[in-house]
Amino acid sequence: MEKYNHQLRESWEKNAPAWTRSVREEKIESRNLVTNKAILDSIVELNPNKVLDLGCGEGWMTRQLSPLGIEVTGVDYSASLISEAKKSGETFHQLSFEEFSANPELVGKNYDVIAYNFSLLSEDLLPILNASKKVLKENGTIVIQTLHPFSSETYEDGWRVETFDQMGDDYEMSMPWYFRTVSSWYRTFKESDLDLVDIFEPVHPEKKQPMSFIFVLK
């Protein structure tokens, strides 16, 4: 598992320039048509004052939520992505999920919402979910957007590879990520003592296929 986690972190650092261009030049259809709006709507309807974006990348979510008067803090492992994110002038921390899990209050506390936007990609999620609860305000909410298993070739837990082939030729390295079935997600939440209070399945407007799962937890 550690081998895959190392490759996962390395891929984000190497692909940081390409990913930043993909997001900022709006090259990813699923984000533009479905998943960007879906995660923002899920967060905004909770009326938060303070949001923690774990796995913030180049800071997209912060740029969307800050103009609404929401205080957003971003966390990411990649130094290159954090450098890009800081250009927006908001608060960002360069930390791995392991570092956050060991000392979550490094990024503050009393968050109304903690968001993971396609950023829970490792096999063992219990440490980071348990750490998240420590900096969540009482009655706060965790919102997770992840890939929908609808188009999955084999419906079973396991490591897979994202090649970024559909995003252009600038990506230097494939990315391993850990796929979970819906029942596996549910068991993970139960083991973390998190209550699943809602599920959304945003649908592609033309293909009429689900593009993601959004889990809302307390």
UniProtKB/TrEMBL annotation:
<dbReference type="GO" id="GO:0032259">
    <property type="term" value="P:methylation"/>
</dbReference>
<protein>
    <submittedName>
        <fullName>SAM-dependent methyltransferase</fullName>
    </submittedName>
</protein>
<dbReference type="Pfam" id="PF13489">
    <property type="entry name" value="Methyltransf_23"/>
</dbReference>
<dbReference type="GO" id="GO:0008168">
    <property type="term" value="F:methyltransferase activity"/>
</dbReference>
<keyword id="KW-0489">Methyltransferase</keyword>
<keyword id="KW-0808">Transferase</keyword>
<dbReference type="InterPro" id="IPR029063">
    <property type="entry name" value="SAM-dependent_MTases_sf"/>
</dbReference>
